[in-house]
Amino acid sequence: MTENRLDPRFVRTRRLIMDAFLLLSTKKDFKNISIKDITSEATINRATFYYHFMDKYDLLEKTLEEHLMTNVMREISIHDQLNETTLASVFMSVTQFQSSLASQCRKSFESFTSVIEAIIKKELEQVFFEMMVNQNAGVREESVRIASVMLSWSIYGAAVNWQYNDTRPAEEYIQLVIPYLSQGLKFFIEEGVR
């Protein structure tokens, strides 16, 4: 299967399945979407579905990962330094991703939240780790790993808190959060040199 990932037919079929799934997510709750529904909507057979995905949970994870990678990570990649501007940009991207998904998949969004959380944290952790390693020579890798985990969880937590508990614009809210993120990052980097 790895050899075929670049084959245009493979890519097209995979996209067709993901699009069918996203369309069904706007109409039905995730738990009520069956493989039969997905294959009917995508006009493929079950064997083709299982060639691309293990089950609907695998499809959910891969679809969300791909959407996250194209939407959120594109925004992050334009920054080469981890600073307050980058943190604000990452926060805005995460909130836009969540809002977009919530409006696209109203019926299933709550079912997706734990998967969204895991994917966002994992992807942000990796990006932050790479940025911090490049930016902070001499800092222990363990400290950078801890800082990247804390930062990714903090960004995600702030985005969720804003989404459910705050009425201010996201741009205004992140300005309240940035000092905490910056101080935490500074502490971890300073401690990592020791």
UniProtKB/TrEMBL annotation:
<dbReference type="InterPro" id="IPR009057">
    <property type="entry name" value="Homeodomain-like_sf"/>
</dbReference>
<dbReference type="Pfam" id="PF00440">
    <property type="entry name" value="TetR_N"/>
</dbReference>
<dbReference type="InterPro" id="IPR001647">
    <property type="entry name" value="HTH_TetR"/>
</dbReference>
<feature type="domain" description="HTH tetR-type">
    <location>
        <begin position="11"/>
        <end position="71"/>
    </location>
</feature>
<dbReference type="GO" id="GO:0003677">
    <property type="term" value="F:DNA binding"/>
</dbReference>
<keyword id="KW-0238">DNA-binding</keyword>
<protein>
    <submittedName>
        <fullName>TetR/AcrR family transcriptional regulator</fullName>
    </submittedName>
</protein>
<dbReference type="InterPro" id="IPR050624">
    <property type="entry name" value="HTH-type_Tx_Regulator"/>
</dbReference>
<feature type="DNA-binding region" description="H-T-H motif">
    <location>
        <begin position="34"/>
        <end position="53"/>
    </location>
</feature>
